Amino acid sequence: MTVLQRYFASEIIRAVMFVLAAFLGLFAFFGLMDELESVGQGGYKLQHAFLYILLGLPNYVYELMPIAALIGTIFALAQFASHSEFTIMRASSMSTFTAGMMLAKIGIVFAIITIVFGELVAPVTTQLASKLKFSLQGAAMSQQFRSGLWTKDIIKTNGVTGAVVGSRFVNVAEVKPNGQLNDVRLYEFDKDFRLAALITAKKADYQKANIWQLSDVTETRFSGAAAAGSTQDITAAISTVSAPTKPLVSDITPKILSVLFADPDRMSTYDLALYTRHLTDNKQDSERYEIAFWKKLIYPFVVFVMMALALPFAYLHFRSGGVSLKIFTGIMIGVSFKLINDLFSHLGLLNTWPPLITAILPSAVFMTAAIMALRRMDRR
């Protein structure tokens, strides 16, 4: 690593970390103001609100890292320009391409931080924060739905493997923060979509390997005659059995159920891929989660786009107010990218655009703008 590369890295990393810390403090403050309304509900106290906000900070690190990289890089480069350091560097044969490559190497550090927080830290802490709040307030996660939670599953001959022999609709009145299901109803249909069984259970606890343990079970089975609506000996075609417990093999796991209450943008790539496959297998619409999946894959590379947008600011010279004006412009660019990126997610969903195109288009537009600005500055 050259002396110039180390100098660039130290100044830019210091500036980006400072900007990120300032953003985290600001967002934490506003988040705490919102949480104060929930303090006092059940056992949810002020210290729990502080812990809830603290657990939410890793997700802010993930979301704000590209914008912090943009503003921090602009600040460092603006300082170089105001002190004529960048002019001396250019006079010493440093080309635009060389400066861009140095920024790209520094961007790798920020991209790795984005990946670590977005894939490993934020999904875990966000889920812990939700469980903490629900458990202390004494609320069930599915109480926001009037008829409880509904989801769909497929029935296979050998549990989770083998040929598909039917489908199952699952209705749960309450999903506890620990993953326990209360007041469960299972509607099983054969391949011709005829009702084959109705199973009710007081509760369901997940064991392992896609197995649920149902408690206080009542199972009503319908034979082919009952399902077809035959009136001949209808009572013989329906059988009801009660049991204290019953195992249930299902593709639905607590991880998949937790997805139903999570924001797709706050899930890991693995969870998004898992749930997208589950929706596809059950012939349900998965476009929203596919868009979120591709956005999650592309988002770390947005750091490089933001730093490329920051480079042209090193070529701009102002007599007064230069640094503050550049930083303000950088903030506007960062906010614009965030708004456009979110807007394209909704537009892609409404217009059924390909998920990959929907996710990559905002970054491609801003990267094109950065390249055009650099070429224009290079000609001057």
Automatic annotation (TrEMBL):
Matches recorded under Pfam families: LptF_LptG
Keyword Ion transport carried by entry: no
Cellular compartments annotated: Cell membrane
Membrane topology label: Multi-pass membrane protein
InterPro entries per the UniProt record, alphabetical: LptG, LptG/LptF_permease
Keywords: Cell membrane, Membrane, Transmembrane, Transmembrane helix
Transmembrane segments: 12-33, 60-81, 102-122, 297-316, 323-340, 352-374
Main location: membrane
Glycosyltransferase recorded as keyword: no
Superkingdom as given in the UniProt entry: Bacteria
Protein name (Swiss-Prot/TrEMBL): LPS export ABC transporter permease LptG
Biological source species: Undibacterium arcticum
